[in-house]
Write a structure and sequence with these properties.
Elements: H1 4-9, H2 11-20, H3 27-56, H4 64-95, E1 116-121, H5 134-141, H6 146-153, H7 162-182, E2 186-187, E3 193-195, H8 196-201, E4 213-214, E5 219-221, H9 226-230, E6 236-239, E7 245-254, E8 273-283, H10 288-306, E9 310-314, E10 326-334, E11 339-348, H11 352-357, E12 359-362, E13 370-371, E14 373-381, H12 382-392, E15 400-401, E16 415-416
Helix pairs in contact: 3-4, 5-12, 7-12
């Protein structure tokens, strides 16, 4: 959330930040309501002063005239306070629709064509045969069952079978082990249903409510582990010595928007339900950009150990999202599909989420609390990494060699073959 004072002081900067993201921001409406609220607040304070002065003039039993004047003042004050409560609520609601202006280092652009490739790693896998896409491989190997998934749940769902299920689980377990045993993250197993205020805290609501799976009791299936893990410290004041806090969680994720605009309608790519290993960080404003670089490095390390050709992309203003301050995507090369697949998004939000969720830290004893900076990133999203592994390690006979780092998690399976 952008603080009201910042909008008062530099409304054009907020408007410009929204324009750069291709978003709208109700800045003028907020300022108009704020002006009205400030005038009304001054009037209520003037009426209170008049009420106090009138009360001081009463000695003994008040006259009928004095009682009438005090009663009238009280009613006017109560009416003003009720109006102020309504105005403040309207302003607070509108603030939730103001996007986070991008950091100055974010490339300015109008489409995803303006994203900037920062670096690439490795070389595309080479074959002496025509490589196949993962969905063809998966059908031959008997590890994908989209037809029965549609029977169970409709379009944009998948069933994994046998070695395919084990391979995805192996990826998740390995990701978690690297995060917790090498990179200093603490694993969290959060609930998969969260309350409305948790979704508001990470900026999924109110703007993207139509994309969420909403339960009858006003809870939501999580679109990412970012939501429950970030909200672990909602309404808390942390000690500076605790920072940075680094958590990692493996959860399913649910998103209605997954099949929007006919994108990625074939294969194990864009689903309404998928698994992801998510990292979340809480840090100080002074270190958040360095922590973003570290988060990207952690995700890159996984792809490098898997031997997957990938690139790191600095997302431009128009392609980075409503809440992000700065964002990098990691894209793995899928040689069978001959395209890049986004397998990780690593973002820093400045204090945008922390203000919505009221997450602060105390720099030192006796000092005023400050808002933390929050970060999150996929390390990694499982379906597309699995796709990249299948396509990269496929063999001429249609089998798939299991990468060395995953073999300890595969119960001795070194190659996935057709049944």
């Amino acid at each position: 959330m952008i603080p009201l004072q910042r909008i008062r002081e530099d409304p054009e900067a907020i408007r410009r930040g929204a324009r750069l993201k291709g978003e709208s921001a109700p800045v003028d409406e907020i300022l108009a309501l704020d002006e009205k609220a400030r005038a009304l607040r001054a009037e209520v304070e003037r009426l209170r002063a008049e009420q106090n002065a009138e009360s001081k003039q009463i000695h003994g039993k008040p006259s009928d005239e004095q009682r009438d004047r005090l009663g009238a003042l009280k009613r006017r004050i109560q009416d003003g306070e009720a109006q102020l409560t309504e105005l403040d609520a309207q302003i607070e609601n509108l603030l939730l629709y103001v996007p986070n202006p991008p950091h100055d280092s974010v490339p300015i652009g109008e489409t995803d064509a303006d994203n900037v490739t920062v670096r690439t790693w490795g070389e595309p896998a080479s074959f002496d045969f025509e490589p196949r896409p993962h969905y063809d491989l998966g059908e031959t190997l008997g590890i994908f069952d989209f037809e029965r998934a549609a029977k169970l749940s409709g379009a944009r769902f998948a069933v994994l079978r046998g070695a395919g299920s084990r391979l995805q689980r192996a990826l998740a377990l390995w990701f978690l082990d690297v995060a917790t045993l090498r990179n200093g993250y603490t694993e969290v197993s959060p609930p998969y249903l969260v309350r409305r205020e948790a979704m508001v805290g990470t900026a999924q609501l109110p703007k993207f409510e139509d994309d969420a799976y909403h339960a009858d009791d006003d809870t939501f299936l999580i679109p990412t582990a970012e939501v429950p893990v970030t909200n672990l410290y909602r309404d808390e004041i942390l000690d500076a010595a605790q920072l940075p806090i680094k958590h990692v969680a493996w959860t399913p994720c649910w998103r209605r928007e997954a099949g929007a605009a006919g994108k990625d309608t074939r294969g194990y790519i864009r689903l309404h339900q998928f698994d992801k290993v998510e990292a979340v960080k809480f840090t100080t404003p002074e270190t958040s950009l360095a922590e973003l670089d570290s988060l990207v490095h952690d995700a890159e390390g996984l792809l490098q150990e898997l031997g997957i050709h990938y690139r790191v992309v600095d997302m431009c203003t128009a392609d980075m999202g409503f809440a992000q301050w700065k964002k990098y995507d990691l894209e793995a090369w899928a040689p069978g599909m001959q395209r890049w697949l986004e397998v990780s998004s690593c973002s820093v939000f400045a204090d945008f989420q922390a203000r919505r969720a009221s997450i602060r830290y105390r720099p030192a004893a006796g000092e005023k609390p400050r808002y933390v900076h929050t970060l999150n990133g996929s390390v990694l999203a499982l379906p597309r990494v699995l796709d990249a592994v299948l396509e990269t390690y496929q063999q001429a006979d249609g089998s798939v060699v299991v990468p060395d780092v995953l073999r300890p998690y595969m119960a001795g399976i070194e190659r996935i073959t057709a049944p």
